[in-house]
Amino acid sequence: MSGHWEHFSHRADIGLRAVADTKAEVFENMASAMAAVISDLGVIEPAQEVTVDCEAPSDEVLLVDWLNTLIYEMATRKLLFSEFEVSLDNHRLHGLARGESIDQQKHEPAVEIKGATYTGLEIRPLENGRWRAACVIDV
Amino acid sequence: MDLQKLTRSDDYQWQIEPHGEMRVPGILFGDQQLMEQLDDKVYEQLCNVAMLPGIVGAAYAMPDAHWGYGFPIGGVAAFDPEDNGVVSAGGVGFDISCGVRTLVTNSTATDLHGHESALADELLASIPAGLGSTGRIHLDHQAMDAMLSGGARWAVDQGYGLAADLERIEEQGRVSGADPAAVSAQAKKRQRNEMGTLGSGNHYLEVQRVAKIFAPRVADAFGLVSDQIVISIHCGSRGLGHQVGTDFLREMVLAAPELGIRLPDRELACAPIRSELGQRYLGAMRAATNCALANRQIITDLTRAAVERVMPGTTLTLLFDVSHNICKEEEHLVDGKPRRLFIHRKGATRAFGPGSAALPESLRRVGQPVLIGGTMGTASYVLAGTQSSEQRALSSSCHGAGRAMSRNRARKLWQGRQLVHELAERGTLVRSPSMRGVAEEAPGAYKDVDAVVDLAEAAGLSRKVARLVPLICIKG
Questions:
Q1: Among candidates B327, B303, B330, which has minimal Cα distance to B317?
Q2: Cβ–Cβ pairs < 8 A, chains A and B
Q3: Is B399 known to be catalytic?
Q4: CB of A23 within 8 A of CB of A63?
Q5: Which domain, by its residues, includes B456?
Q6: Is B245 an interface residue toward A (CB < 8 Å)?
Q7: What pLDDT is stored for residue B49 in this prediction?
Q8: Count of domains observed in chain A
Q9: DSSP label at B33?
């Protein structure tokens, strides 16, 4: 994984921002940024693997779909994720998310993420060839 | 916010004159200090809402307004189906029918004295809270659809709570027009094991003391007296509502060009009320509302049982249950004429004044209880709807204190364990599965709730009835 991710301030909710060498990696970094809103990534063992497939008419909608599918998988499987791998074929995404079952004492999850929004949403190449993405999530 | 951009209508009302593609003005409530402190994003978002098709009157911002996604939080907007008006999944948000219900007890703070810790532990053990928690109820397909159609009435039929509770819930506990078939299989799957759970983040259950009565006659009608113990529950439609929001936001974003709707912000994703998509969303949103009403009803039943174990003989009577993230069809007077409108309230509370036919007989004389959630270290309020609110903001008021800073900043400024210790010394016991969650919800991370309700009253949106201070807070 290249590049980095960070959170930016949004009064009620939380903004996610990431930069990476490739488009696929920026998807991975955005997922890491989102997972870190719930719990410290360092305490989540990548013990179980979940496969995610999404398809959308644009990169931006694909990014929202990817994050929302991870939210759905976390909610229905009662998992927290800490590692992500993404491969892209045009607007089709194949992803892997690794993590473990939620343990309230171990992970101290702070919030439940309700959904990824279309506010402040962007994913685009930078002049230096790297990729940048941003999105606000509702918590 | 730059006051030059606003026209002052009176001491507590400010207007954004329609410009650009705005169809109606934006109206904000607050004093000069609040307007100066208000985020520019609220201005921008209110202008965007005012551009949506079929909007009636104005796009309103309550005194607790802050930057949201699409709509500002604290935003109110009404749409007329006769005028190609829209319903917006973004205007309702992910936590459909998130709301507050308050139960009044026959006990006082003196009765609770010495039992605080036992009650806090019993409530934490009885009410599933925090991420990953599940309830004891597991719904199959048939039961899920019955719950989505029946709301709190379904819950009462299943043995959760009392039939008398229903009168004190919006729509008597069941919103009509719910369409369980419009709710996706994914949304239903998310809810299968989540009935009767509190959730996390800003959701809570609090045992509170009535610290001050402002309007004795209204308080009397509400059954509130000084030093009484009341219990407030703040939560919503859980995973099902979140998924309904997710599903329809996407569908409405993608359908907008075909529907001929230009979205100033994609998060305002909407569809004409009269369209197939608009109707399907309304059916799903109402089903999610019933889910929230059933959820709060089940938590009420769990709460009653927990209180009975610690303080036998204590009764919990429902004062009211009101949502603050919702779209509802209501009749309002516009330029003196009654019109059926679809009112979006996102982080805003319905506040029907005295005489409203929608209120049960027992409340009609004094107006609707408006329940304002505060923080675990400050206060919550019971307000009452006023007649002036109808003309001011389509019978709407604020919903809470509103965050003053981000979660990240709060986590840097406070430590959960330290906060729990400090709050205990000040008389509030906090129980939570997540100390990080407590830090992010620190009282100091919120605006001054006293100031917000003072402004709501001064602006004529509702009147103060009672101030409640927290004694026990169960934080998800």
A1: B303
A2: 134
A3: yes
A4: no
A5: 3-132+198-239+313-404+446-475
A6: yes
A7: 98
A8: 1
A9: H
